[in-house]
Amino acid sequence: MTGRNLLEYDPQTVTASEALNRAPFVLLSHGTEPDPVLNYGNNAALALWEMSWEEFTSTPSRLTAEAALQSQREQLLEDTQRQGYSDGYYGIRISKSGIRFEIQNVLLWNIVDDAGEFRGQAAVFTKWERK
């Protein structure tokens, strides 16, 4: 746990899932498959990667990075799995159409269920820059 809230919202006017989906930051996650597949992306994530929900949630998360940078990304994921979270990551990613962009000041954390079982990882960031 990072001890941070992702956003504040009024539960009388919007559900948590609606608020996260419409949030001004990018939020995404992947599961625990041998080649983890993205299983959530809010509207900002879908727009940044230029994908529909169906495309996004059937994409192995490694494909969000260029092939040459996938080992760096894999090391980050492994370090995060051991430590619980990582804060301040910067890295280059690539959209469906091939647009390169740098994600900045990324918070990455492990997703665990109520029994403490590892269920995947999620990331959030507010800044990115096209390269």
From TrEMBL:
Q: What is this protein called?
A: MEKHLA domain-containing protein
Identify the species of origin: Cohnella cholangitidis
Q: Output the InterPro entries linked to this UniProt entry.
A: MEKHLA
Per UniProt, residues of the MEKHLA domain are 2-129
